[in-house]
Design brief:
Structural class: alpha+beta
Radius of gyration: 40 Å
Bound molecules: phenylalanine
Distance between the termini: 85 Å
Helix content: 40-55%
Order of helices and strands: HHHHHEEHHEEHEEHEEEHEHHH
Strand content: 15-25%
CATH class of the largest domain: Alpha Beta
Number of domains: 2
Strand order of the largest sheet: 1-5-6-10-9-8-7
Number of helices: 13
CATH architecture of the largest domain: 2-Layer Sandwich
CATH superfamily of the largest domain: Bira Bifunctional Protein, Domain 2
CATH topology of the largest domain: BirA Bifunctional Protein, domain 2
Length: 342
C-alpha cells in the first residue's frame, strides 16, 4: 500500500508544472513544506515494520530528492518566463539613479531680484488682471480716443468687444492702485503683457514688465533719477552709468527713456549696443496731472513719477543672452546654466 502511494506521488511530481509564483508556492506546499505529502511519508515511518524500515526509508528519500530537484527546475522555468516578459532584473547593487534638481527660470530670478531692490527702498507689490478694459489700459492713462499712441502698442483686442484687450503694459495696474489707494503710493507692478508683434530674437508677443509708481507731495524728477540710478547700480554693479533721453508717453510729462552703459563692452561700443556704448532698459517720466485726476488724486497737491522696464531686456543684459526666444523654448541646456541663481 505504501509503495503504491509512493509511486503515485512520484507520478504527481513528474507531471507537476508551474507558470507563476503562486503555482510555485502551491507546489512547495504540496511537496516540500513541513505539511507536504512527502513529510507525511516520513511520518509514516513509525508504522513500518522494522525489517522494512531501511527499504522504505530509501524510497522516501528518493521521493524527497525528486521533489526538490523538480522544485529547482520549476523555479528556473518561472524566472526565465518572467525575464522574457520584463527583461532581466537590473543589478540591484548599483547605486540609485538620482533625478536632477530643477532651478529657478532666469526670468523669475530677474524679477525677484528687481522686486527685492525696490522693496528695500519702500515699494510694495501690486498685481492686476491680464485681460483689461480700455479705461485701465488706455483712457485713464491719457491716451486720447483714436490717438495713434494706441497703435504704438499693437494691442490684442477681444474680437466681439473692442473695450476689452490683453493689457499692453502693467501701467494698467498702477491706475487700479491709484483709484483704490491714497498717496503716499510707492508700488511696483510686475507682470505679463501682450503686444501683437512678430516673434524674433528681439521681440515677442508675450513678455514681462515691471513698472514702478511713486505718488506723494513734492515728488520730483530728481527723485526719479536717483531711484533709477540706485536700481541700475544694484542690479548691474557699481560701475554702471545711467542716462536719460527725452521721449514721449501719453501718461508722463516730461518723459524720458532710460539707458544704461553697455554691460558687454562697458561703454566702449560693441555690437550689442550697436557701437553707442548705451542700451535702453525702459521708459519713465513724471505722471501727467491728467492721469492723477482720472484716478481721483488731486494733481495740485500731489506729483508722481513712474517707470517701466522689460524683465526680458534686463535679464538679457545681465546674463548676456542674445535671443529672446530662448526664454520660452524650455531648452534644458539653456535653463541649466541658471541653476542656483537664487
Ligand atoms: N508703460 C510704458 C511701456 O509699456 C513704459 C512706461 C512706464 C513709460 C511708466 C513711462 C512711465 O512702454
Amino acid at each position: 500500500m505504501q509503495s503504491q502511494k509512493i509511486d503515485q506521488i512520484k507520478a504527481e511530481i513528474a507531471a507537476a508544472n508551474a507558470k507563476s509564483a503562486e503555482e510555485l508556492e502551491a507546489y512547495r506546499m504540496r511537496f516540500i513544506s513541513k505539511k507536504s505529502v512527502v513529510a507525511a511519508l516520513f511520518a509514516d515511518m513509525k508504522s513500518i515494520p522494522n525489517e522494512q524500515k531501511k527499504e522504505y526509508g530509501q524510497q522516501v528519500n528518493e521521493v524527497k530528492q525528486l521533489a526538490e530537484e523538480k522544485f529547482k527546475q520549476l523555479i528556473e522555468a518561472v524566472n526565465t518566463s518572467r525575464q522574457q516578459k520584463t527583461g532581466p532584473l537590473p543589478d540591484l547593487t548599483l547605486p540609485p539613479t538620482t533625478w536632477p534638481i530643477g532651478g529657478i527660470h532666469p526670468l523669475t530670478a530677474t524679477r525677484q531680484r528687481i522686486v527685492e531692490i525696490f522693496e528695500r527702498i519702500g515699494f510694495n507689490l501690486s498685481e492686476g488682471p491680464e485681460i483689461e478694459d480700455d479705461w485701465h489700459n488706455f483712457t485713464a492713462l491719457n491716451f486720447p480716443e483714436n490717438h495713434p499712441a494706441r497703435e504704438m502698442q499693437d494691442t490684442f483686442f477681444i474680437e466681439k468687444n473692442p473695450d476689452i484687450a490683453l493689457r499692453t503694459h502693467t501701467s494698467s495696474v498702477q491706475v487700479r492702485v491709484m483709484e483704490n489707494e491714497k498717496p503716499p503710493i510707492r508700488t511696483l507692478s510686475p507682470g505679463r503683457v501682450f503686444r501683437n508683434e512678430a516673434i524674433s530674437a528681439r521681440a515677442h508677443c508675450i513678455f514681462h514688465q515691471v513698472e514702478g509708481l511713486y505718488v506723494d507731495e513734492n515728488v520730483s524728477f530728481a527723485n526719479l533719477k536717483q531711484t533709477l540710478y540706485h536700481f541700475a547700480k544694484e542690479m548691474f554693479g557699481k560701475q554702471t552709468q545711467v542716462r536719460f533721453r527725452p521721449s514721449f508717453f501719453p501718461f508722463t510729462e516730461p518723459s524720458a527713456e532710460i539707458d544704461i552703459s553697455c554691460q558687454l563692452c562697458g561703454g566702449k561700443g560693441c555690437n550689442i549696443c550697436k557701437g553707442t556704448g548705451w542700451v535702453e532698459i525702459g521708459g519713465s517720466g513724471m505722471v501727467d496731472p491728467n492721469v492723477l485726476e482720472n484716478c481721483g488724486i488731486d494733481s495740485e497737491k500731489y506729483t508722481g513719477f513712474a517707470f517701466g522696464m522689460g524683465i526680458e531686456r534686463i535679464a538679457m543684459l545681465k546674463y548676456q543672452i542674445n535671443d529672446l526666444r530662448l526664454f520660452t523654448e524650455n531648452d534644458i541646456r539653456f535653463l541649466q546654466q541658471f541653476r542656483g541663481l537664487l
